[in-house]
UniProtKB/TrEMBL annotation:
Residues 124-244 form the Palmitoyltransferase DHHC domain. The lineage of its organism: Eukaryota, Metazoa, Chordata, Craniata, Vertebrata. It comes from Calidris pygmaea. This is Palmitoyltransferase. It catalyses: L-cysteinyl-[protein] + hexadecanoyl-CoA = S-hexadecanoyl-L-cysteinyl-[protein] + CoA. Belongs to the DHHC palmitoyltransferase family.
Amino acid sequence: MALSRGLRCCQRAFAWLPVLIITLVVLWSYYAYVCELCLVTLSNPVEKGMLAYLIIFHILFVLFVWTYWKSIFTLPVQPGKKYHMSYADKERYENEERPEVQRQILAEMARKLPVYTRTGNGGIRFCDRCQLIKPDRCHHCSVCAVCVLKMDHHCPWVNNCIGFSNYKFFLLFLAYSLLYCLYIAATVFKYFIKYWTGELTNGRSKFHILFLLFVAIMFFVSLMFLFGYHCWLVSRNRSTLEAFSAPVFQNGPDKNGFNLGFVKNLQQVFGEEKKLWLLPIASSQGDGHFFPMRALCEAQNPLLANEEQWEDDGIDEEPHGKVALKEISCVLTYSD
């Protein structure tokens, strides 16, 4: 027991290593740009653009650090209590050995919930570890050991699960880190050439500036592909998991099941207040439990729509399932 506990502590500590590496690289880049470039290279002799360099650099630096901080320390949101099994249902489910009766217990719970996606074989999405019905787009993260609403992926570089609560922050982090690297590379390149040709000779600053350019370009190229991929995902209203495995609805898998069109897809992540789009302030639409779908024209819960399937398992239709779902508006098909 003590050994396994010690291993878990070591694992948790080791998970912070990528964050530590990024933090050290960012701190060094700040020192190299502000001290070695602006205060040493540009001040000897003094150049007119030094103040402008410093102002723009610090604006990008603050936004970059702010979004990185929010991506790391914004906890992933878990499903609400109504998605968890009650004590009585849990006892019934665990004591029942017949699969068809277990499915009936889950079906009774699902009738009361706005869940529209299924497992690959058409069953109800249930998490055995968290003991809950999974809301649409919710997945269990094996690293965080919890179910995460609208889970996108677990990112080792922020040591956190990217999902509904921090996906906007993660996108802004990628955008500002991209701009941060691009700005450094663009402003350092001129002095890189001067050091390369021997016009400038300060040995210590030369090392920092040359290395700063290479690191900025390296991170810029890698971030450009990652940011571009996530922009494409947002435009299609998909998560990384959904891009690899399409969500399953009543009529089968549909990779565009949540695609409402570019503008509405963007608003779902960033919100309707455009003044908040570029700031790491929570503004995403909804609460992460229910998402409008491309076409929702069922008069009842799609998990229970196939009456023949459930009748074979001895499950009867209950009127309150229809009443509950009348409160959910039908979302018509949107064009891309």
